[in-house]
Amino acid sequence: MPRKIWLGAGLASVLMSGEVFIKITMLGIEVNSDYGLLFYTAVLKLMLSLIILCNHKKDITFLSIQ
Fold it and tell me: Cα separation of 60 and 66, whole Å?
């Protein structure tokens, strides 16, 4: 469903922003000596989902002004 890509990107960005927030505030960037790998992959997923969301913002029906 190509017209619903924005929905998946929006959900992914909300989920990843929550994960990044928890890692910064509660867990810490480096957990179990992973050298921050999980934190950096969460930040990468957040950035990519925001890029996808921005690229497909024309498909978001409730944001379109007519």
Answer: 13
Domain count, the chain: 1
User: What are the tens digits of pLDDT across the range 31-64?
Assistant: 888 898 999 999 999 999 999 999 988 888 777 6
Is position 65 within any domain? no
DSSP type of residue 57: G
Q: Enumerate the H helices of the chain as residue ranges.
A: 5-22, 37-55
| Contact (CB, 8 A) for 41 and 47 | no
Q: What are phi and psi of 56, to 5 degrees?
A: -110, 25
